[in-house]
């Protein structure tokens, strides 16, 4: 992230590479609004024209600590901003400080512009309910396997199931906890959804 100023005007910028091929996605917070450059297209969204912001925690196999911001425009457009950037075929680098500072500054400028955007955190309610239902079914199945292993005396199998369940709970628990759907205010950006 870069902050620059000239004659009382300040510009905050952020860029990331969404894939190995193609140019970086670049964003600037200017006095006029959010200026964006994505895949040869560009635009300027006034802060009061941003109709919704959704923050979420979205880990991927190559980057377990990845955050995402989805912005919607009153005219129907949508922009995705990620906290990681592709460096090489095997390396996706985190950009934690730049992403966090950019998102906090975006919220501050939207609030200053009198925005009435819908601010939500986590997954959508239906998606979150589906994730919880899947986890409940998986928990029942794992409990059944554990009981069966104990009843037939397969203690090594029981230990494996317990270890696997603990690892799974550790990996998935953070995702589920951070992505619980809720609303927030401009002055209370959820820290759990920022690096």
How is this structure best described in words?
35% of the residues lie in helices and 32% in strands. The chain has helices at 96-112, 125-151, 155-178; strands at 2-6, 9-16, 25-29, 34-38, 41-45, 50-57, 67-73, 78-82, 84-88, 91-94, 118-121, 182-183. Helix 2 packs antiparallel against helix 3 (155-178). It has a 5-stranded antiparallel β-sheet with strand order 1-2-3-4-5, with helices on one face. It is built from 3 helices and 12 strands; from the N terminus they run E-E-E-E-E-E-E-E-E-E-H-E-H-H-E. A hairpin with a 2-residue loop joins strand 1 and strand 2.
Secondary structural class? alpha+beta
Count of DSSP E strands?
A: 12
Q: State the major sheet.
A: 5 strands, antiparallel
Supply Rg.
21 Å
Measured by DSSP, the beta-strand proportion falls in: 25-35%
Poorly predicted runs of 5 or more residues? none
How far apart the termini lie comes to 14 Å
Number of distinct helices: 3
Helix-strand topology string:
EEEEEEEEEEHEHHE
What fraction, in percent, of the residue positions are helical? Answer: 25-40%
Indicate the mean pLDDT: 88
Strand order of the largest sheet: 1-2-3-4-5
The coarse silhouette is: elongated
In quaternary terms, these chains amount to: single chain
């Amino acid at each position: 992230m870069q902050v620059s100023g000239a004659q009382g005007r300040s510009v905050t910028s952020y860029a990331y590479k969404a894939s190995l091929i193609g140019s970086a996605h670049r964003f600037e917070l200017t006095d006029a609004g959010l200026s964006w450059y994505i895949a040869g297209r560009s635009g300027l969204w006034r802060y009061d024209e941003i109709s919704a912001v959704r923050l979420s925690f979205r880990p991927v196999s190559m980057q377990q600590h990845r955050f995402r911001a989805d912005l919607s425009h009153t005219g129907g457009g949508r922009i995705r901003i990620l906290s990681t950037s592709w460096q090489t075929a095997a390396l996706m680098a985190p950009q934690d400080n730049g992403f966090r500072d950019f998102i906090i500054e975006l919220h501050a400028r939207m609030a200053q512009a009198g925005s009435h955007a819908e601010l939500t955190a986590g997954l959508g309610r239906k998606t979150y309910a589906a994730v919880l239902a899947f986890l409940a079914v998986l928990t029942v199945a794992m409990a059944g396997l554990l009981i069966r292993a104990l009843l037939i005396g397969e203690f090594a199998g029981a230990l494996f199931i317990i270890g696997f369940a603990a690892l799974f709970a550790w990996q998935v628990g953070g995702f589920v906890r951070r992505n619980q759907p809720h609303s927030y205010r401009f002055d209370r950006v959820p820290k759990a959804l920022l690096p």
